[in-house]
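Lab notebook: predicted structure, single chain.

Context: the supervisor wants predicted structures on file for every construct in the current expression panel, including those that have not yet been purified. This is the next one on the list. No modifications to the sequence; it matches the entry in the shared construct table.
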Amino acid sequence: MCHCCCYGGPRHYCHGNWGHFPRRFFTKEERVAKLQEYIADLRAEIKAAEEELKRMQNQEDE
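Prediction complete. Output recorded below exactly as produced.
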């Protein structure tokens, strides 16, 4: 973690005396990795939604 004025959260941006700004340009490999991570997150969200739907449907049957 840096020692400047920081704003935490999912994305950590620093705006302090050292001139840290969020990156705007990424390599192809970084973009591919980010997209793969995004797809994995979407799949996990779908799985959780399907589990919640099954749970709700089972409650209706009772």
